[in-house]
Amino acid sequence: MHNTLKLLREEAGMSQGECATALGVSRQTVISIEKGHFDPRLSLAFRISRLFEVRVDEVFVPDRD
Amino acid sequence: MTTATQSSSIPWLKASVPAFVVALAVGAGAAAVRTDAPAAVVFAVFASLTFPFALALGAVLLDRTEHPEEHEDSIEKQWTTRASSGAFFDTVVAMGLTVFATSVLDTRGAPLWLFVLLALGDFAVRLAVIRRREA
């Protein structure tokens, strides 16, 4: 699964720390999601989509097999 | 700031009375059973050493602080889970190999504290490696 979190965050002019605070997670979690090391649960995925006002499938895109 | 400090110290205050009672009970129990030192000394040593642990345990159990982060959503939680499951596997293997070796060689097994130490060290190393690799 890859994601567009970094792109969305940068477009919104947010730092990783600000994004983490807005989502209620640690900065390390945001970094790990952006690097593709961590796929969050649905609850966090929806919080991310709400934060950037996009659909979940615009943030998280499954890899093609 | 003052409110946060006060609220964080509440579990410690609440835990202090039961911890004191537990420490007295352990001290009294040890003094009643053990015969290797005067009863007053045994009581003092066991009660004073039990109190901080009972206090810490009580504070942890009574802590109702609401943490902002949902732990299931955090990478730290995932790192901890992966490190602990790896350490558990290693410890079970080490214990199995030790039991096998001691039964074949007819020697005494390694003491339990050695495996506890191995598990803790293994967990710490695994956690550090995962954090370093993925941070």
Automatic annotation (TrEMBL), chain A:
Domain (HTH cro/C1-type) ranges: 5-59
PROSITE patterns: HTH_CROC1
InterPro entries: Cro/C1-type_HTH, Lambda_DNA-bd_dom_sf
Pfam family name, one: HTH_3
Keyword check for DNA-binding: yes
Gene3D superfamilies registered for this protein in UniProt: lambda repressor-like DNA-binding domains
GO molecular function: DNA binding
Keywords: DNA-binding
Keyword Transport recorded: no
Designated name of the protein: Transcriptional regulator
UniProtKB/TrEMBL annotation, chain B:
Domain of life per record: Bacteria
Membrane-spanning ranges: 12-33, 39-62, 83-104, 110-129
Keyword check for Membrane: yes
Keywords: Membrane, Transmembrane, Transmembrane helix
Protein's recorded name: Uncharacterized protein
Species, as recorded: Nocardioides oleivorans
